[in-house]
Amino acid sequence: MEPRNHSRLPVFLLLGLSEKPEIQSVLFGLFLSLYLVTVFGNLLIILAIISHSHLHTPMYFFLANLSFSDICFTSTTVPKMLLNIQTQSKVITYAGCITQMYFFTVFGLLDNLLLTAMAYDRFVAVCHPLHYTVIMNPRLCAQLLALTWLISTLGALPESLTTLRLSFCAVIEIPHYFCELPEVLQLACSDTFINNVVLYIVTGMMGFVPLTGILFSYSRIVSSVLRISTAGGKYKAFSTCGSHLSVVSLFYGTCLGVYLSSTWTRASQTGAFASVLYTVVTPMMNPFIYSLRNRDMKRALRKLLCSMSSPQGQQQ
């Protein structure tokens, strides 16, 4: 295959998780179900927080934005996969592939940074409870949210822009269900040294710095909780962090699992299946974690569902 010239853009083919026709319908039903659960579950979280004034606190403010980010994160990959299965087409345009890579990175970074902001919120709540409302004021929350969006949108640019300089063959087969940057770089016909350097720098900075912030916050939280004399006080302090800690563990655990699976095996199909964990499963699980482990959220969701199902509930 000849490398493309600048007058003709390449065509990308997403091979998906399986090329067997009998499995395509199963994958379509499975991913459609997972996607709908993810979207409606996170929408319920957002609506519950908006409609109940007792949830208008910094923690739930960031949680609502995390739910929105999760919807967008999953929507960058799954709808295109479902469309390709339904139309029996594997094609994604060059512009579509670059756009998908950019927004996939944006919302992945946004998830990571929002979890860091939520860790800081829990740190202030546990370690400085008397000054919590003063420190975590609406202005600071808005500034933190704006900062996470700014870093995410700008942080995703270097990887996407450096991809534009690469030359590709006329038709490129990607053994994945979306345009994942490492897979695309492996299929380039030109030198990818600069791209790999940018990839490692961005991934390192955007992964290491937020994780360090989260670990620092929880080290201070643990230190403060251990100084509490009563067992009931310790449980109450830890319970305020349980849901967030579970989501953080799930997020970084799945990312680590995907990295290890790609390190131990070179099979692209294995990497594609592993990617399902953090692209689909993690955003789907977040609403369940917060609704099952959080008493206030369970109460708000129950009221919201009652008000949606009956006129009498809405009057209440």
Would you write up a description of this structure?
This protein is mainly alpha-helical. 76% of the residues lie in helices and 3% in strands. It has 14 helices and three strands. It has helices at residues 21-51, 58-75, 78-87, 94-127, 132-135, 138-155, 157-163, 181-186, 193-226, 231-239, 242-264, 268-293, 295-309, 311-315, and strands at residues 11-14, 91-93, 171-174. The protein has a three-stranded mixed sheet with strand order 2-1-3. The protein is globular.
What structural class do helix, strand and pairing data support? mainly alpha
Number of strands: 3
Order of helices and strands: EHHHEHHHHEHHHHHHH
Helix content: over 70%
Largest sheet: 3 strands, mixed
Q: What amount of the residues lies in strands? A: under 5%
In spatial order, strands of the major sheet run 2-1-3
Low-pLDDT stretches are 1-7, 312-316
Name the average pLDDT: 86
By DSSP (H or I, 4+ residues per run), the number of helices equals 14
Question: Given the C-alpha coordinates, what overall shape results?
Answer: globular
Distance between the termini: 67 Å
Radius of gyration (CA) equals 22 Å
Subcellular location: Cell membrane; Membrane
InterPro entries: GPCR_Rhodpsn, GPCR_Rhodpsn_7TM, Olfact_rcpt
Pfam family, one: 7tm_4
Domain G-protein coupled receptors family 1 profile: 41-290
